[in-house]
Amino acid sequence: MQIGRYAFVVAAFLLSQSVTVHAQFVTFPAATNGQTTFVMPSHNVECTYTPAGGTAVYKPFDGGPELSCDRREPKYVRIVLTPKSIRRFDDVGDQDCCGAGNPFPYGMRWSRGPFTCESSETGLVCRNADGRGFSVSRANIDLF
Predict the structure, then answer these.
(1) Where in the sequence is the domain holding 61, given as residue range(s)?
(2) Residue from 24, 64, 23, 72 nearest 47 by CA
(3) Is residue 15 part of a domain?
(4) Which of 17, 66, 72, 117 is most solvent-facing, going by the fewest CB within 10 Å?
(5) Nearest-CA neighbor of 70 among 34, 43, 51?
(6) What are the pLDDT digits (tens) for 68-82?
(7) Number of domains forming the structure of the chain
(8) Residue 16 domain-assigned?
(9) Does 4 map to a domain?
(10) Do residues 68 and 50 make contact, with C-beta atoms less than 8 angstroms apart?
């Protein structure tokens, strides 16, 4: 009886331990201007990474790097994350979301510069190095 009880306690202990599963990393090629773009499988959210210093035609407002993510529906919104700030724009003039290039598969993680994003069926979560960031889905946008 003692051996059976001992085996049960050990099995219960092992099952109770949380197993941390880390998403696999995915990389996307940078365009010739240095920017990297990726789109969620739903084609409702697209992000563009701009390196420090920007491009010949676009300079991030604080010098960069910058991660800018657009959500198309139900209302077009842009979220801009930098190493120092996060901003939400509800009145976006250049609405060009969401292309078909560089699909960001669910369950994957992307990282470049100070930014890391995770893709899931419930939405996209991105953070900068100090932990500030956002989650975006068709249903919600939360800045933190």
Answers:
(1) 21-143
(2) 72
(3) no
(4) 17
(5) 43
(6) 999 999 999 999 999
(7) 1
(8) no
(9) no
(10) yes
